[in-house]
Amino acid sequence: MNPKRVFTDKELKEMGARTLDLVLEAIETGDKEKATKLARRMYEESKYLHDGYMVWISGLQSYIYKNCGTDALEEAEKEAHTIEANLVFKPPEKTDFRSLVEHQASKMRGHLQPLSIEEDDEKVSLTMKPCGSGERIIQIGGYEAGLARVKGPHRITWGMQNFPVYCTHCPVGEILAIERTGDFSVVKVVTDPIGREGCHFTFFKDRAQIPDKHYTRIGKKKPLRAKG
After folding, report:
1. For residue range 111-156, what is the model confidence (pLDDT) as tens digits?
2. Considering the entire predicted model, what is its pTM?
3. Which of 51, 59, 156, 165 could connect to 148 by a Cys-Cys bridge, CB 3.0–4.6 Å?
4. Helix (H) or strand (E) run with residue 107 in it
């Protein structure tokens, strides 16, 4: 005797479909209620993977730091950044100021948090409310649960102590940007301790105006060409 089916063929097909495709289908058929429900479902699905991977990566970072030290953590992150830059986080095709800011905003929206974007005569700053990764790990108690903090000051902690291990990828990214291109594209303006306030991803219209401290905190010197 065959067991009774649990799902219909239609249910199985819909369960296996991309949520995006179902949202678009609901919009095309004018089913606003279903489209809204599916859009919320898509957010929760994305958040589940986003948060899972950020904690998983933090766990790997913690293991490297606890067992091999800060320098090894830096080298591991440089290797990972290089691979992801080649496969996923490729540089924007357009490199004018406006395009760089728009590209950064596009990347940051992937953290599923609203952005505050402000401009003045010198710069444009983008801030997540809250930071969708480093700050949220702090908020959900990741470090109380066992994730590591880098105890001593180092170039990958911007010279700070007790630095959340996940957040070290930001200084590493700045180091790599200078080593690859000769200067910053975007500068992180942060508080000490990290997580007290949101971090600002700041684009200076004239890179000569970037304060020296942003270079020295990662063991770099302000390039001569940035002064002209």
Report:
1. 999 999 999 999 999 999 889 999 999 999 999 999 999 999 999 9
2. 0.89
3. 165
4. helix 97-108
What residue type is 49 in one-letter code?
L
Q: Is the peptide bond before 130 cis (omega within 30 degrees of 0)?
A: yes
Cβ contacts of 19 within 8 Å, gap of 6 or more: 38, 41, 42, 45
Model confidence band, residue 74 (pLDDT cutoffs 50, 70, 90): very high
Q: What is the C-alpha separation between 169 and 156, in angstroms, rounded? A: 8
Q: How many CB atoms lie within 10 A of CB 65?
A: 23
- Angle, helices 70-87 vs 32-68, to 10°: value is 140
Phi-psi region of 111 (alpha: psi -120 to 50; beta: other; left: phi over 0): alpha
Residues facing 164 on adjacent strands? 149
Please answer whether residues 156 and 64 qualify as being in contact, where contact means their C-beta atoms are separated by less than 8 angstroms: no
d(CA 120, CA 212): 20
Structure tokens at 139: 């908020």
Q: Around Cβ 122, how many Cβ atoms within 10 Å?
A: 13
